[in-house]
Amino acid sequence: MLYADLAARFEELEATGSRLEMASILSDFFKGMDARDIRSVVYLSQGKLRPDFHGVELGMSDRLVLRSISSAAGVPLGKTEKLWIELGDPGLVAERLIAVKKQTTLFSEPLTLARVIRNLEAIESADGRDSQTKKTKLLAQLLHDSSPVEARFLCRIVTGRMRVGAGAMTILDALAEAFAGKEDRPLIERGYNITCDLGLIAETLATEGLEGVESIKVAVGSPLKVMLAERLPSVEQILERMGGRCAMEYKYDGIRVQAHISAGEVRLYSRRLEDLTSNFPDVAAALAAGCRVKDAIIEGECVAVDRDTGAMLPFQTVTHRRKKHGMEQAVRDIPVRIFMFDMVYADGEDLTARPYEERRRALAESFEIGGQVELTKMRVVGSVEEGLAFFNEALEDKCEGIMAKSLAEDSVYRAGSRGFLWVKYKRDYESALTDSFDLAVVGAFFGMGKRTGGYGALLMASFDEDTGMFCTVCKLGTGFDDGFLAGMPALLDDGLSETRPRSVDAKMTPDVWFEPTVVLEVVAAEISKSPVHTAASALTGDGSGLGLRFPRFTGRVRDDKEPDQCTSVQEIHGMYLLQDRGGSETGE
Ligand code: AMP
């Protein structure tokens, strides 16, 4: 395939705002291509060379890319840098300068997809002292033979700025349209949810059809999308929903990890699919030592504990283990335990379709429990009194609340989906609402008074699971301490966008826009209808959106959550409907 074909599709995708149209552009493209190319095409549409959990990045800084552009376009670096300051995006700089060069150069060799992939792989693996020079050269070779549009997308890919709007859900729609039927979409999505590898799903569909995708199994080394919980405002409603009886587990306030164990080797993944093994080497070693089966995939929450008393410490303590530097010291200073709560694979067997009790039994039997490896505390409850007693015990033991889990026959592990098989119930002392919200930052307003010169307030959004859009729910200006205010530009400015990002639905216009990448935890007093916010406007019935009243930042940056894992528009709408019924229940 010629890379020019792919770049032309990227341009078409960029020009449309409609998800339907994007899916149809992609599906036509998939249908017409050689099946051997589809895997790379899918990764590149998302600006990647391979799935996220491989954790490798092309990692070229803007400055390095400017050097490649200068060399390929035959323009002095100073001029390229000046243009970059003006345009802000190396992709646009490359497009402009390559266009000028094309007017005088008659010959260049057309770029094939295979050659682009070869050079990008070499850029990815370049290391050692002269790695920067190597990367610059490899990119310059490609830019030399690029058209202006091809150059624009190459530079966006290597700098991690590829945002043509091809989200995972759109690509799955396109794959269903190209190789199966709409009705097969859930089966295809299941394949993606248990592998987190869109390229693999696309290639399997193109070569083996739907049957191939159906036979994809959970496998050690390939993380699954995690199962998520719904929320309800009272223990009474939880029991009602679960048929009068359910398992309740402590809801620990730590970092969720998925452990893949194979013949004594352990890899730990976060819910964002980052490899956390080097952050929790002690937990990995304890799991390897305590595991009685050959292969396993389990899930648990890593929580920091007091060295002397074993008491659980607040979330902020365990986050020190996510630091890039000083990890050895952090491992020595901050003891961590893993509280395991699920097992989705054991000794060659996929357990995701087994009911909760079977999975829990398999988990308990597969590990030596004790020391750093624990099971979540669990009790089966059959009355509101028992449920409230367990909830209060959880709070006394410094947990956030409880997770209720269905005991029904169909209480399977639903990778990647949120449902009422698991229901969370938390107590938030500072808020009238029973729960906090994890919201994506999509914009900022410049500060006034004491905050002049920096950002004063942020525009926050929730994720609409139906449309894939980020819809605004509040303007957040409270709860920031001086340190956070000073650090805001460093935290947010990587995602700066000159115009409203294509994935953001907003009526308000902030001073600056951000691509949704940073998630913050927010509490609020109430959810109310709002003429200025866009969340849930399709659900409220009268077209008005929902907004949070008196929002306040809790101080917690949810860097363990992808923006599309933030509190959804659908959840906020559900909470809005429940808000006036019942309210919070504390058992006091
Ligand atoms: P939230 O992040 O508020 O949506 O709550 C869901 C998170 O609670 C999960 O992703 C886990 O990280 C965490 N968690 C803590 N304890 C448990 C448990 N016993 N079962 C499942 N998840 C738990």
Domain module count = 3
Structural category? alpha+beta
Helix content: 25-40%
CATH architecture designation of the largest domain: 2-Layer Sandwich
The whole-angstrom Rg is 25 Å
What's the multimeric state?
single chain
Can you tell me the CATH topology of the largest domain?
D-amino Acid Aminotransferase, Chain A, domain 1
CATH H-level superfamily title of the largest domain = DNA ligase/mRNA capping enzyme
Bound molecules: adenosine monophosphate
Name of the top-level CATH class of the largest domain? Alpha Beta
Strand % is 15-25%
Q: What does this protein look like?
A:
The protein has about 600 residues and is of the alpha+beta class. The chain has three domains: about 45-160, DNA ligase, ATP-dependent, N-terminal domain (DNA ligase i, domain 1, Orthogonal Bundle); about 230-430, D-amino Acid Aminotransferase, Chain A, domain 1 (2-Layer Sandwich), CATH 3.30.470.30; about 435-580, OB fold (Dihydrolipoamide Acetyltransferase, E2P), CATH 2.40.50.140. It is about 40% helix and about 20% strand. Strands 12, 13, 14, 15, 16, 17, 18 and 21 form an eight-stranded mixed sheet that branches. A hairpin with a 2-residue loop joins strand 3 (about 255-260) and strand 4. The site of adenosine monophosphate has 11 residues, from strand 2.
